[in-house]
Design brief:
This protein is mainly alpha-helical. The chain folds into two domains: 2-303, Up-down Bundle (ABC transporter transmembrane region fold); 324-381, no CATH class. It contains eleven helices and five strands. Strands 4-3-5 form a three-stranded antiparallel beta sheet, with no helix packed on it. The longest helix has 52 residues, at 207-258. The protein is elongated, with a radius of gyration of 32 Å. The two termini are 58 Å apart. It is a multi-pass membrane protein. InterPro entries: ABC1_TM_dom, ABC1_TM_sf, P-loop_NTPase, Type_1_exporter. This is ABC transporter ATP-binding protein.
Amino acid sequence: MAAIALYVALSLAAALVGSIVAVCLLPLVQPGHSVQLAGYRLALPGGLAMQASLFVAVSVLFAALRWQSARLAARLTSRYAIGLRARVHAALIDAPLPALSGASSAEIANVLTYNIEIATQGLSAVLQLLVAAITALVSVCIAVLIAPALLIAAPLLAVLAWLGLRISSADAQSRISRAYVADMTQLFWLSEDFPRRLRHVRSFQRENVETTHYARISARLGQGYAQQQELVAGSRLLLELTAVVAIAGILVLANRWQGADRAALITVSLLLGRLLPYLVTTRQSVQQLRSAWPALQLWRRYVDLGVARAQVPEETAEPLPAAVHIEHIGLSPPLPQLALESILLVPGQMTLVVGASGVGKSSLMDVLSGQTLPAQFVAHMGGRR
């Protein structure tokens, strides 16, 4: 929490200093003029050299504050990503094996890698939105103190902000992003352990089928990427056009109300112009938040896999004094419905278990190794049951 509070303080300081930069720029743009703030005329040093030096000094301070806040944001997101990955990995390590029976290896790999990146981008988006909100609030408040007539335009600003959210095609972007992640996960699954998969493909002469499948997924990924970029470009164009129209309308209104006070108009233009770059970043941050929510849900599902498995004491196992005769063994759901009769396990001998793929051989080994509890188990050894 202390780091978050420091980030907010740095962002607020950067927003205030950035507004001061706009005020210090006015004498350089229109010499001999100053700004009235809440009825008080700001006194700026005279002389071009002093004014330029003040502008450079305040600009350097603004850049330093932004740099420090960006470094702090990087540390926060890095710490967040490490925490997410550590928690889900610990949950997977301690998860009971039946809880993992319905999960594919590709999905687990996605949870540990790409899914964490999407969730981390969500925190980065929150931090960027926080900066944009603080900057917008400070800039608009100072602009209103300079030109109180801008209060008349407050409803217009609210309507334009609402329109900006409505025209951003967020639903389409979210749908395309989910499809893109699904295709990428499927491609990751196809590429997993490629040498072993290649032997399987060549053994069954499925080279053409495999190539066609790869080409189809690659085409969908390319199309999805193009659609994402087109939506981003269209949304950016609409937002920028809306911002231009809004600023022009506000300045015309302020000009009619303020009369000949050009200094106030120039300063207000500089303050509102600072908000233009945040329009695109705000749009992108909202998209990242919408994508991060499903990623966090998937992460939460794996963190909450179930009760942790019992910790086995680290003791050296005693050798079996006699052969173990397993009369019946059955697997618990959701493992495969496998039931075996009469298995003889002799110390020092290897027992070969064969069967069709997916019948439950690995699950049987999990039961025999003590990692999963069986549904039924009847056995005897040396006359003891």
